[in-house]
Amino acid sequence: MSQYLLSTYAADGEPPSQPPSPEAMGAMLERIVALEADMDASGTFVFGGHLHGPDAATVVRMSNAELVMTDGPFVESKEHISGFYIIDADDLDAALGWAGRVSECIGRPIEVQPFAATGRVADQFPG
Amino acid sequence: MSTHIAGGDAGEVERVFREAYGHAVATLVRVFGDITVAEDAVQDAFVVAAQRWSESGIPPNPAGWIVTTARRRAIDSLRRSARGRELSRTVVASAGVTSTEAGDRGVDGGPVSDDRLRLIFTCCHPALRTEHQVALTLRLLGGLRVDEIARGFLVTEPTMAKRLVRAKFKIKAAKIPYRVPVASDLPVRLRSVLSVLYLIYTAGADDLVERAQLREEAIRLARAVVALLPDEPEASGSLALMLLNESRVPARRRDGAVVLLRDQDRTLWDRSLISEGQSIVRDCIRRGCPGPYQLQAAIQAVHCNADTFAATDWAQIVTLYDHLYALVPTPIVALNRAIALTETQGPDVGLAVLDGVAGDLDNYYPLHAARGDALYRLDRFDEARHAYHRAAELSTSDADRNYFKLRLHELAGAYD
Fold first, then answer.
1. Structural domain boundaries of chain A?
2. HSE of B82 in the Cβ direction (CA atoms, 13 Å)?
3. A27, B16, B59, B379: which sits with the fewest CB atoms below 10 Å from its CB?
């Protein structure tokens, strides 16, 4: 079993060309709820979330033992991750299958990235 | 298609190596689940073989010998490394299963052949970029050296080596599976395999002499895919397409210039390749499940059927292009259909259709070559000359440029 990050990107200040109607929104939510139920039933779902945009981000670094903060994202770019799932899957084909279903639900491309390691570092380097 | 072997033991050993390489790597990947381990072990085994076989001769089942030796070497080297100890335990455990069902029953048996099929689907996985698919396929299944692949695709050896490293990294990191896809994924995944093989073939056609090896490899792998997936008509179609193209190779060059179909000495065509290709095409037609490769093969089969250019059944070819265009509505298919129309309906009709697709193909030299030909036949020499100049500018091989020079030379004569 491997873990994969399925993420979707939004472009900065990109309003949907036509805001979805409440009906379309409801239908999309229904599809996502059904998909997540399938993920749960198959032991695929690990975690997922929808993120606020870069306007809500803060970057923090320690400088001379002092906490320095910067308003905004680490990298100024037009695109940012807007939502993601972390899933358990047997292999890339299985992960791609789930990613395809997510993409179909939300009508956006999904990036699939394998984790090099997951969990607590202490668990990977015992002793 | 025979490999260029000087003869003698060294040549025989080389031939056996090439034949055995893909089989051996594929089997070892199944056993060890790791491409690098498999490649290293097979290379080790080849080194041992080169020494031993030169003294005691080639064993009766050389490929089986390579697999057994490579397997033993891999287990030895894994036991020596700390990282490998864990892997070797799981391998020994799982090898117990595989050796009862598959074992090392020899290279021509079912299980081992299935290994090659698995590996080709891994190499051509759509999650890998095309140039990586091509490089992996030639390296792991074709057994070509990195420098040979690099030469075939006009990149430096370090660049090609880097591609292979990156592709193998992704297979491992993303866990691209090593198996034949399930039936529902097979059409898409097979398309990717066939397009890689055809890309290798066409890259080999850019230089008929220097890159003959790429064409040989593409045909060899296509034969393997057809043998392993006999119920996939598109796989058969792609093999037939390559065979029929290959049959005309001996007639395609004269004095360093391309010789067009119309001017080829048809007695130079390879009759045995033609009859094999045409018989595959007939089988495909009987199955009644046409696809882009089968239709392109059928078009080539019609060309190969004609004893002279004038005897070509152009109406049949136009019909086949109509079918092809319905499945693959690309400007290039439209261009080829227009070229066939020039023969059935005359250069004026052909030119009108060519001009219709010209906008999409302005940087594609065959468009300008076809326009030049139609204009020439309409006695519009100035425009023809302009079109041939453009074709010569855009073409990428000396053989093509030399052909356009000949045509321009003829045109200069047409003024007199």
1. 2-52+79-124
2. 0
3. B379
